[in-house]
Amino acid sequence: MKKTLFLIFFISNLISNLNAAKISVEELTWARGETLLTFFENNNIPLNLYYNLEKEDQELANEIVSGVKFQILRNDNGSISQALIPVSEELQIHIIKNKLGKYEIDFIPIIYETEERVFSIALTKSPYQDIESATGSTKVANAFIAAFRGNVDFKGLKKGDRLVIAYKQKRRMGKAFGEPDIHAAMIEVRGKFEYTYQFKDKFYDENARELDKFFLIKPVKEARVSSPFNPKRFHPILKRYRAHLGIDYAAPKGTKIHAAGDGVVTFAGRKSGYGNVLTIKHSGTYTTLYAHLNGFAKGIKNGMKVRQGQVVAYVGSTGMSTGPHLHFGLYRNNVAINPNSVVKISKGGVDNKEKAAFNAVKNKFTPILKAALDPAHVNPPREESFDNVVSF
Fold it and tell me: Structure pTM?
C-alpha cells in the first residue's frame, strides 16, 4: 500500500493528461557510458532537443552518473510520456511529451524529504556487514568506513563492540536517494570510543584533528575563477534553475593543467558538452574531472598513474564552451562537491578561527551518539525495496 501511494503521488505530480488507456511507471539505472544523446537515440526522442539546449545546460547534462536511478512514464504504446533523470542531488532533467506530441526538456529541482537517522549496532561480523544488515544500505556502510579512514584499525575490533552513526538521508518517492550525509559517528576499539565529526565536508576527531588526509592542489596556477561552484541556483532573469557543479578557471589556450592529486586516470576522451575530458580516481572515494581541454599531456591514457602536480592536459575550449577555460569538478562517492573544500596548501586540523563552529557541531552530536548506546534506543527501520515497474 505504501509503495502504491508513493507511485500515485509521483504520477499525479508528473502527468498533466491522464487520458491514456494505460500508463506504466518504470525505474531504471543509468548505464555506464550512456549519455543523454544515446538515451534520446534509444528512445526515439529527437536529438535536436539536446542540441537546442544552451551551452550551460548541455554541460550540465554530462553530469548524469552511471548507477543513478531514474523514472520513466510510458503510455500504452510503450513510448515515453515523461522522464525524470537526476543530474545531481538537487536538480533533475524533466522530459515531457506535450499535448501536441512534441518533446520538451527542462531542469527542475528534485523534490525530496530529509530524515535524521541514528543507528546503534553491536558488532557480530564486521562494521561494514553489520551496518549493511541493520540499515539495508551499502551506502551507509561505505560512508561509515570512509568517515574513519586512516584513524581506526578495524582489525582490532571484537564481537560485541558498539558503533553508532548519526546521519541525514534524503528520501525521494519513498526511497533513499543520494548519499547518506554522516553528521557524526563513534566506534568502540579496545574498550575506548573513537569519534568522527563532519565539518565543512571533512571529517575530524574529537580534538579537531583531520581524519581524511586527502587534499588537492589548484590544477591551474595563476588562473582566476570565472564561475564558482553552485549546486542549485534560480536565475532571477531567466526564471529557471541553473547549476554549476565545478569551478571554472579562465586561462589562455594551451595553459598547463596539473593533476590536483595522486591517482589513476579513469577516462581520457570526449564527452559531448564537456569536449575533451580527463577524470582521475584518487585514494578513498574522490574523483576529479578536467573538461574543455585542448589536449592531453603526452602518455596520458586510461589506467595510467599520475602524481600530484604532474602536467596532465592543457586548457582549451572544446565542447560547449564560450572561451578557453578549465572546468574542474570534484566528486565524492559520485556526488559533486565544492572543490574548494579540499583544495588547500597543506594538511591540518580545524583552523583556530573555526574552532568554535566545530565545537558547536561536536557538542550537538556527542550526546546524541552516547544516548544511542542506551539499550532502550530503537533503530529506524531498514530501507525497503520496491518493484521497478508498476502499471495503472
Answer: 0.77
